């Protein structure tokens, strides 16, 4: 279990996170939603230890450091692979670095995405690079997999197929946290939705709570973010 207690982060005069409190157990697929600049990426980077912060983040009661960081993996659009080597080279490296590396899962996902194994990553398309980043993160053998906008550069068919695969391969001891703007696409695949607005966590809802409300996730998000449909009509009217 990851526990995030009173976590805040400031960049000079900008507040990126403000007093965030969340508990992330094993065995869930979680959607992390918020507008650009809301704090989604900052929160993930604080958990991974890439940023300093105020407050406390623990994994099963222990500080996250070099002794347990292998239990977390991170897929990012900034990419964490080595561009000058091949996918096969990455597989060998990950097998040496991560004792729980799941080679069977890796091979199946590489085949699913139809990714070349003997081609340098720098020669992959952007969509292929993002797919490979996800493949590595899911195959590492981590208990908690963080994905920050993992589907950029991929068409809707690839994304929908991947959601189905993700639901099939993730087991009861793994948790996947996906930061994305594609709320309607992912709504049917998550167990829980965490909403961030202007550096603060404004809601944390289970699928059961969403269903009991009688509303869709996108309806709840629009309400929480004070979405105003009339501003579109107003803008169009001003341009005529």
Short summary of the structure?
This protein is of the alpha/beta class and 240 residues long.
Arrangement of strands in the largest sheet: 6-7-8-3-9-10
Strand content: 25-35%
User: Helical percent range?
Assistant: 25-40%
Can you write the helix and strand succession as a string? Answer: EEEHEEEHHHEHEHEEHHH
What can you tell me about this protein's structure?
With 240 residues, this protein is α/β, with parallel strands linked by helices. It contains 9 helices and 10 strands. The longest helix is centred in the middle third of the chain and has 14 residues. The model has no long low-confidence stretch (mean pLDDT 88).
What are the main properties of this structure?
globular; alpha/beta; four-stranded antiparallel β-sheet; Rossmann fold; 240 residues
Give a topology summary.
Blueprint: E1 2-11, E2 14-24, E3 29-33, H1 40-48, E4 54-59, E5 62-63, E6 72-76, H2 87-97, H3 103-113, H4 126-139, E7 144-148, H5 156-169, E8 175-179, H6 183-186, E9 192-197, E10 200-206, H7 207-213, H8 217-224, H9 230-239
Parallel strand pairs: 3-8, 3-9, 6-7, 7-8
Antiparallel strand pairs: 1-2, 1-4, 4-5, 9-10
Helix pairs in contact: 3-4
